[in-house]
Amino acid sequence: MSSEILSQSEIDALLSAISSGEMDADELKKEETEKKVKVYDFKRALRFSKDQIRSLTRIHENFARLLTTYFSAQLRTYVQITAGAVDQLPYEEFIRSIPKMTVLNVFEARPLNGRVLMEVNRNIAYAMMDRLMGGHGTGISHSTSLTEIETKIMTNLFEKSLDNYREAWGSVYDIEPADMKLEVNPQFLQLVSPNETVVVISLNTQIGDTSGMINICIPHVVLEPIMPRLSVHFWMQSERKEPKEAEVNALEKKIHGAELEVTAELGYSEITVQEFLDISAGDVIQLETSIDQPLIIKIGDQPKFTGQPGKIRRKSAVQVLGQYQGGQKESE
Which GO terms describe its molecular function (predicted)? Predict the structure, then answer.
């Protein structure tokens, strides 16, 4: 049954047509009970739900904002990057859709297995390189391959951008992008099998007067272990919930049982190395602290209280007099 909502005038017209005999109610019921047949292409298997596509869109919208800031700082020119379409299609179809000569950055997203592909439009890539080499960002190379210097420049630029990709994924899963390799001909790149489903996120990119696309291609096999994390249920989950009372009580109990080293400092003195070497039994070392000054009580290596020495049942003891000030900011 269609989910379309009819207006009051359309409802009135429908009732009028049924009452006048122009439409048969039985035929309408028959149409509703008929099975709806939908064409399904097994070569374009839909492996990602709409919910997961929306999550990937949010992640890469954040990535686009981070890239805008990163490239603006690196290239020192106007840069605007926004997330565009997100599609799932066979890997072979994606490879056929990109230009014969382009800039392909392949990297791993550890600990996930497999590789991710960042395809950068040739015009965008050379505009970036032109800016890095002191140009106006309009340089377009017509050569079929990159020189060693160009390859090094491009690799360094995009390797540093992977920090932004890790940050964009931080709210969903901790990844560590690494081992970026650069290629210019997609025909030489076999990321996954031709029929493997990949999700492609397109980023609309504007650098000065040059515009183009940056496409992120992620195979389904890479994301398969973390697919549940891409659902709305995960985004609303317990990570943002307050700790349970039992967990808080258990944590407090552990903290209360922790052992701390407490020391009372009688005083201090400074001597030379020679004086230290000449010390023998019976010598007296004069301390800088007066006998009527309170002792400093340390927790660990931090002074926290003042006290005075004494005895309890023939054992040495220190009575706490108050909190240590000493010109230091008191810890909470």
Answer: cytoskeletal motor activity
pLDDT per residue as tens digits for the range 4-52 = 566 666 677 777 776 666 666 666 565 555 556 666 555 556 678 888 8
Domains (ranges, CATH) in the chain? 8-37 (no CATH), 44-240 (3.40.1550.10), 259-323 (2.30.330.10)
Torsion from C-alpha of 138, 143, 144, 145, nearest 10 degrees? -80
Predicted TM-score (pTM) of this structure: 0.57
Q: Cα–Cα distance between 188 and 130 in angstroms, integer?
A: 26
Reading the block at residue 58, the tokens are: 């949010």
User: Is omega for the bond preceding 219 within 30 degrees of 0, making it cis?
Assistant: no
Residue 120's closest CA among 161, 177, 66?
A: 161
Which of helix, strand or coil describes residue 47? coil
